[in-house]
């Protein structure tokens, strides 16, 4: 496969062998390799049952791997970092998700790109907006910047209600 660009979301809210969540994200970026750009790390409140705040970031990477091969490698990195499968939205040393791909959309039994929920998640959109604001969602045709503005408008309406 020719070199493709991917946007990978990174999250951590548990100390691991590399240190705290920020250190786990930095170590994961080194393990992934091919990093072209990385967002600042932001602190976000947890979703679901976890009580610890998350450190979240996004990275634009270059890879010769097809989406399923990259997914397999990302899951191996998670496992090597001590990620245990279990409770959804629970505490985790590292979480690595493929959000967007320069090839557009991809779907098979293990992977859907773009990530199904990224449009509704500020903790994904805000970091994405710092590195790829003009990338288009292949499903909606909207840019990351437009998706961010929509998400922020929903948040404002919810606060004002």
Question: How are the SSEs placed, and which strands pair?
Answer:
Layout: E1 4-12, H1 21-32, E2 35-38, E3 42-44, E4 54-63, H2 67-80, E5 95-101, E6 106-107, E7 112-113, H3 122-131, H4 144-160
Antiparallel strand pairs: 1-4, 1-5, 2-4, 3-4, 6-7
Helix pairs in contact: 3-4
State the separation between the terminal residues, measured CA to CA.
49 Å
Broad shape = globular
User: Uncertain regions: pLDDT < 50 for 5+ in a row?
Assistant: none
Count of distinct strands = 7
Descriptive account of the structure:
- It is a single chain.
- It is built from 4 helices and 7 strands, in the order βαβββαβββαα.
- With 161 residues, it is of the alpha+beta class.
- β6 (106-107) and β7 form a beta hairpin.
- α3 runs antiparallel to α4.
- The longest helix has 17 residues, at 144-160.
- The relative contact order is 0.19.
- The mean pLDDT is 91.
Quickly list its features.
five-stranded antiparallel sheet, alpha+beta, 161 residues
Structure summarized in a few sentences:
The protein has helices at about 20-30, 65-80, 120-130, 145-160, and strands at about 5-10, 35-40, 40-45, 55-65, 95-100, 105, 110-115.
């Amino acid at each position: 496969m020719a070199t493709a660009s991917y946007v990978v979301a990174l999250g951590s809210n548990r100390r691991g062998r590399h240190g705290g969540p920020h250190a786990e994200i930095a170590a994961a970026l080194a393990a992934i390799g091919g990093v072209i750009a990385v967002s600042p790390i932001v602190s976000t409140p947890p979703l679901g049952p976890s009580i610890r705040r998350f450190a979240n970031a996004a990275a634009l990477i270059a890879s010769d791997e097809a989406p399923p091969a990259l997914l397999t490698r990302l899951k191996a990195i998670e496992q090597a970092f001590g990620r245990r499968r279990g409770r959804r939205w629970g505490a985790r040393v590292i979480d690595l998700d493929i959000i967007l791909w320069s090839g557009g959309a991809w779907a098979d039994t293990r992977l859907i790109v773009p990530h199904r929920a990224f449009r509704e998640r500020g903790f994904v959109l805000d970091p994405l907006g710092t590195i790829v604001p003009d990338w288009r969602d292949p499903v909606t045709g909207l840019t990351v910047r437009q998706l961010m503005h929509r998400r922020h408008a929903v948040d404002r309406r919810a606060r004002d209600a």
